[in-house]
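Ticket #4471: structure output looks truncated?

Reporter: J.K.
Steps to reproduce: submitted the chain below (119 residues) through the standard prediction queue, then opened the result file.
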Amino acid sequence: QVQLVESGGGLVQRGGSLRLSCAASGSIVTPNTMGWYRQAPGKLRELVAFITNGGSTNYADSVKGRFTISRDNAKNTVYLQMNSLKPEDTAVYYCNVRAIGALPDFGSWGQGTQVTVSS
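Returned output as attached by the reporter:
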């Protein structure tokens, strides 16, 4: 079983920054992909970004150039640096860890952390 603990969400003004962290523990499959997803009210959960053990990354078009994902493999922790935040970034952000090649729903999810961007 895998446990994911997220932190770093909060309320920020348009143009501001936040840094999310997610620490994984337990029976973590390797190699793996760690990622961030978000869900806004009334919308489906969507990919924000993910990163593999080897450092390969992928970003949603809506966050390219503003968000940066990184990880510390020794600490099984993934980070999401969010800059130039917009009101449309408001959502609950979820951490996910999965085996490389697996679908996110076959991995493990964190409890979510709220990010609110005011205009």
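Triage note (M.O.): checked the attachment and the full token line is present. The chain has no helices and eleven strands.
Status: closed, working as intended.
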